[in-house]
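Researcher: Here's a chain I'd like modeled. Treat it as a single chain, no partners, no ligands.
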Amino acid sequence: MSGSNPHKIVLKVEDLVIRRGAKLLLSGLNFSVEAGQLLIVRGANGSGKTSLIRTLAGLSGNGDDASKPIHWQFDESCEQISYVAHHPAIHPALTVLENLKQGLSLQQHSVNDEQITPLFKQLGLNKHLVAARLSQGQQRRLALMQLKLANRPVWLLDEPLTALDETAVAWFRKVLAEHLNQGGCCVMSLHQDFNWPAAQLQNLELTQYATWLTAVPHSSTSVA
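Model: Modeled as a single isolated chain. Structure tokens:
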């Protein structure tokens, strides 16, 4: 990933509405994210953090025609985005290495052993271990390793620090800094404290409320 203008808007969200069935989760949400910028999404459980990250990742509809409330600078956002869910998608019957290579292959990205081996050492992962035996923290480390290797400009992360020890958090902070300094951007939900340079940081606080709709707004997003 090459460097980028740090003032170039990568993502713009205008009047986003997200609902789950008849329940309104978020309404009238507006924000933008620039290249080189980190947006941290916070809020109480049930406030819509995961739903927002999933919607940005294209895992839920986001309106139609001119009413689309989510605007990317590129046409095919799925090829530019890396998404890490709160519960990473890992095949329990495959080894750590096989999961890593399979995940990268699905993103049309391949790596060699010279790129992979140092990361296994840094994160303390046994590449031959069957994934069914991984702890929650080890699963998270595997997902973040894949994130780094895929080298896509946009990161959408749902609670990426869950179950990580101090060593893994320090590694992630270093990787995130490199990503932003190279012109990438990141939107991530968090509940932990996470100090970051103010020049690169935005904070978005979601307010928890429950509103039951009788009519669905035209530009709303329905979350399964």
